[in-house]
Design goal:
By secondary structure, this protein is mainly α. About 75% of the residues lie in helices and about 0% in strands. Pfam families: MurJ.
Amino acid sequence: MTVVPSQTPGHGTDRAATVPAARAAPPVGDGHGPSSPSASRKFLARATLVTAALSIGGSLLGLVRDQSLARLFGAGSDTDAFLVAWTVPEISATLLIEDGLAIALIPAFSMALARRARGVAGDPVRELVAATLPRLSLAFVAVAALVAGTAPFLVEVLAPGLPDPRLAVDCTRLTAISLLAFGLAGYCSAALRAHRRFFAPGAIYIAYNTGIVATMFLLGGEWGVRAAAAGVAVGGCLMVAVQLPSLWRQLASRAPAAVGGAQGGGEERPVRLALIAAVLLFALCRQSQVLVERFLASALPAGAISHLNYAQKVAQIPMTLSLMVCTVTFPVVARALADGDTERARDRVERDLVLSSCVVLLGMCAVLACAPQMIELLFQRGAFTASDTAATSDVMRVYALGLLGQTLVGTLIRSYFSAGRPSWYPLAVMGVGIVATSLIGAVAVRPWGVAGIAAANAVGITVTAALLLAGLRTSRRGGAGGVRLRVRQVLAALGRPVLASVGATAAGAFAASRADSPLAGLAAGSLTVTAVFVALSLALRVQGSASAVRSVRTITRKLTHDRFR
């Protein structure tokens, strides 16, 4: 059910991750009640904390998954074949869970919740589910069957340089099952987040990676790397299973509103095909960067695709953590726009841009400073050798240069679709970025190998981020009711943490190089990066840095008090 100020948050595990609906009811009391801005901030902080904890858990299990893959199968031709097949689930996860269905469906559910709160006849939320879920499920089944049937053609297109494509074809057919599971998981996730429930959606990658790791160890000896492909399908099914109970409670707990209770219901905006097409095509175009990378890397010596994959998986952890802010606040922005509060939505997006950028820049500094130590500690065992460590860490440092662009794209794209209206501009600028990635990669791959591919990725996504930010300037036309940003102020705010990251990276790299063991080097480098970045952020007066430090102190004192009282 929708959480309004007069109601108690949800039941069970979702209670700690509930955020009040934006402007669902007028403020009451003395300004300190549940509907006050301070209460809303507390709920947002609580939801962010839950999402962060679950995201970190999912990321750590993702590292365990990659460590298991490296330990069991190394970085040779078999692993390359699986990673080519894994391209399909990676793309579908973005399309159906992260940047695709969520961006299209959360505004639709937010509008349905706003209409329900205004007393519109019937139950708009259930009507939305009945109108969309059956059709989307049929589409998911059709796409999964199509991928399984055309697996040989897909492998040939994705990696024409593979010496033996048969293993990749088998893995592709196994992973095709995950397309249906990802679609259903993405639908559940979007519906729950619109209802301000974040625990179950945040736990999906814990379930996913658990399924992959367990299947690899259970079947790896008999099936080889095909066990990893089967694990992807098992993990996808677990993503749906962890969300169904919570979603069922949300849909079953609210009786339809009475017909006589309607009071000026807002305009109904159903989920239009143009909106879904615009969102999914953008997400597909963005993920085509992976296709370009693996296409170019398939012509390099065996292991090149694996080195690029391991480097990306580690380097993307800071980006994943930075985007958790947008995961929590996107439903808030969508609901604010559904209620007509465009100024509140704009302020929220601008704050999110700076905060998410600070998080990813801090992580980027650690990656640049401590890349060899990270890879050695995480992967150098079993079939993963010291030469694999050196190659992967070199690639990871280059790839990390594009993390700020990746985060900005992930943050900005939500602003284009938060009002529930189609926009084709993001697709056009993502196309420009892909062209840049392809051309630069084709030129750079010969002299610099995998590092050249990673550099092309960084340049292409940074170009896309710049164009997306320019498209949201306050002077642009169209998109009434959408988010428009004060771009100059945003750029000025972003410049300060970028300067802080330069100093933090240099200091962290020096500290890491002075240690003898990789563990000591990683600890010294990470602590130095954090200390220098925070100090420089405070000195440069980075937006929100002082309040963030105060919040950490408050939380630390509270935890200490709760522990010892």
